[in-house]
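Work Package 3 committed the consortium to producing structural models of liganded targets before the mid-term review. Because experimental data for this complex are still outstanding, the team generated a predictive model from sequence and the ligand definition alone, so that downstream docking and mutagenesis planning could proceed in parallel. The input record is reproduced below exactly as it was submitted to the modelling pipeline, together with the SMILES string for guanosine-5'-triphosphate.
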Amino acid sequence: MRIVKIFRRMEATCFLWKPVVLPTFTKGLLDRVSYRQCNLLSRSHVGSRYYRIQVFCSNSSSTSSKDEILDQRFLQLLKQNATRKAYDLVLSHVSSGEQLEESFRRKFIKKLSSAGRADLGYELYRAFFSTSESCDPTLLLSIWKTVDRQQHSPLVERIIEELEGWLNSSLKEESPSASEEDGKYSVGVQVCVQLCSYYIQQGNVARSLSYVYRLQSMKPWVNTSTVNKLLSIYSKAKCLQGLYATIEMKKRCNIASDSDTNTLLAGAFVKEIHFVTGAVSMETLPKPLPEVAFVGKSNVGKSSLLNLLVNNYSIAYTSKTPGKTQQLNYFIVNRSQEDKKFFLVDLPGYGYARVSKEMRDKWVDLIRDYLEHRKCLKVLFHLIDASQGLSQEDRYFIEFLLTSNVLDRYHAVLTKMDKCTKSKDVIVKSIQSELVALGFPFEVVIIPTSVKQRWGSEDLWLALKPLLLDKKSSSRPSA
Ligand SMILES: Nc1nc2c(ncn2[C@@H]2O[C@H](COP(=O)(O)OP(=O)(O)OP(=O)(O)O)[C@@H](O)[C@H]2O)c(=O)[nH]1
Ligand SMILES: [Mg+2]
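The resulting structure, written out as tokens with the ligand in place, is given here.
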């Protein structure tokens, strides 16, 4: 017989005997051949041509093949649901002094856990990895995620104790640099998120939030997906404090939103929203509820911003033509939740609108009346078109506001930021100084937004924090 080809692989050296010419696809197959596949192939033929492979010698130590055989038997037992036997098999292999590669150890632990025996997975973990000083948080997390919450709470408690110990002993609290032990801190983020989730399910809000705050010290490793996971956890738990802690952490860590972030945010705060009425006079306003109003010149983007806030782009009608909204349009949010319901009010615009002067004057009177007398108005969003800056009408309106009693509820919002060429900070600073020059007695917080690019809603929700979290202290202390 003639040796046709020799394949050198990590696991073994293979000699190929006959036929002299190989079909092309067989060659491809042999390029990817592994030690185990050699054995299989040596007993088979491909197409009409027979060939033989002989494994002449194994390049790695004999433990590798033993590990593979153990692996096959282990998987077979798992298939038969004999999880305990599978566990015993691995344990006796190791207790008899055999070596076992780390990749197999990890695999056995994970497989046992995901086969419904997190307890056995954890026992193996203890036997293989854990000494009193060391901890493998990735493995512990993977075991934890497979635990049936009802049945294994002592196990979860043990895992948590180890993970919290690891967080406290291995990760610095004061901001580490991005290059520092990357893997360790990425796992640290995962551990924190899992702990946030665990403690909120246990009803321990303070402990849960402490891990959101902890994430701030891992800034380089926190990303949009971390934020989205937290929003989803606190939304499910209906925990407004958790949602706000997450938004604040996101802002401090300067993490961008994606479309999921907006959907999750709106979904967390708005369980339902309905149109209630279009009021044309003070007499036709609905019965009082805490209220959030959107005011600004015609076409500035009030209705669009309301839609962005609730992530529902068909609830308030928008139009390119100024003067679209002609009444005080009332939308009720969360109407079936007594302690959480509130109104969003979309006002007609002031300034230029494609309607008669008489009509415009009527709107201005109504807006003034509304702002001066509607006691349940808790938050006023005053919209300014960032692409045009403050208009003369805006200045008149601000002069009126400065003499009114609604300043303590005032928030300036910049719209259409996507149309601006200057940087966000430059625009915000310039409007801020204009407002101070107009006579604002405090530095106004300005919220930049873009409905077109769908960003900015988290700052609007932050502005509603006093209203939603503590309805009694919803006004800013007067300056
Ligand atoms: N590029 C851009 N266009 C926007 C933005 N927000 C709103 N618009 C557009 O501006 C136009 C006016 O938007 P509306 O939301 O109807 O404005 P409004 O203030 O409610 O207008 P009135 O009801 O007429 O007072 C629409 O064509 C919107 O699509 C934004 O952030 N960026
Ligand atoms: Mg409108």
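Reviewers should note the following from the model. The pocket of magnesium ion (ligand 2) is lined by residues 302-303, 324-325, 346 (CB under 6 Å). These observations will guide the Year 2 experiments.
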